Amino acid sequence: MDSINDYITPAPKLTELLITQVKLGASDLHLAPLNKPRVRINGNLVPLEDYDPLATGDTKVYADSILSAAKKQLLDSELQADASIAIKGLSRFRVNVCHTRGGLALAFRAIPFEPFTFDQLGVPKNMIELANRPYGLVLVTRSDRLW
């Protein structure tokens, strides 16, 4: 993607699934042939029960609607391709498309247009103060050793 103005219009059903992903607050959308679409919410993969299992042709149509000619060529030669897309008014997405035994599988990671604030992330105030200091290095470590 050259700029944020490079919005795309995916296949209508794929657009519907991506809207559902964002509305549910899911980090990922997984599409695989012969399976219901799944979203990752709080680390758990949850099937979207309102949808039928995807046909092999469905995932191919979805991939064709979002991949450039160069990415399609890479997919054919390497059996997988990474891409990024943006849908105006919705979100940006990091995308992986790969060949599986049943056909093409796709995974979408939602990346909001605007980064989350410290408050939205629940970062403690003392950590915000550390992050805002003009000099120094903050090193966070973990010890597995029990004292």
Spatial order of the strands in the main sheet? Answer: 3-2-1-6-5-4
Number of domains as seen in the coordinates? 1
The name of the CATH topology is: Beta-Lactamase
Backbone shape: elongated
- Averaged pLDDT: 91
Helical region count? 5
Question: What does this entry look like structurally?
Answer:
- The chain has 147 residues and is an alpha+beta fold.
- It has a single domain (12-116), classed as 2-Layer Sandwich (Beta-Lactamase), CATH 3.30.450.
- It contains five helices and six strands.
- It has helices at residues 12-24, 56-66, 69-78, 118-121, 125-131, and strands at residues 28-31, 38-41, 44-47, 80-87, 91-100, 103-111.
- The protein has a six-stranded antiparallel sheet.
- It is elongated, with a radius of gyration of 19 Å.
- The mean pLDDT is 91.
Question: TL;DR?
Answer:
This protein has 147 residues and is an alpha+beta fold. The chain has helices spanning 12-24, 56-66, 69-78, 118-121, 125-131, and strands spanning 28-31, 38-41, 44-47, 80-87, 91-100, 103-111.
Sequence-ordered SSE layout with sheet pairings:
Layout: H1 12-24, E1 28-31, E2 38-41, E3 44-47, H2 56-66, H3 69-78, E4 80-87, E5 91-100, E6 103-111, H4 118-121, H5 125-131
Q: Which descriptors would you attach to this protein?
A:
single chain, 147 residues, alpha+beta, Beta-Lactamase, 6 strands, 27% strand
